[in-house]
Inverse folding.
């Protein structure tokens, strides 16, 4: 299976996760915190917890993207640089 199909599936999955998150309770909390954090906390939103969840989701998606990248051995990089010099 070519790599671009995997990348396309990963991009579609990330878009689906972010779309669902925006329409969830966490998404609404983050919008409220972004508008006015003090007012959101006055309404009972735990801003530290919401921000921590957003950070965890972001870190998971970044890790998923980084783990799907093909690895390039450093020896091929050195060879390419020395060949051009």
């Amino acid at each position: 299976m070519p790599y671009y199909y995997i990348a396309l599936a990963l991009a579609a999955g990330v878009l689906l996760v972010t779309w669902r998150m925006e329409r969830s309770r966490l998404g609404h909390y983050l919008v409220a915190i972004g508008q006015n954090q003090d007012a959101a906390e006055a309404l009972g939103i735990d801003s530290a917890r919401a921000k921590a969840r957003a950070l965890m989701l972001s870190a998971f998606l970044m890790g998923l993207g980084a783990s799907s990248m093909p690895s390039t051995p450093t020896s091929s990089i050195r060879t390419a640089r020395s060949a051009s010099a």
Summary: Residues 3-84 form one domain. Helices lie at 3-22, 25-35, 37-42, 47-67, 74-84. The mean pLDDT is 87. The chain has one domain: 3-84.
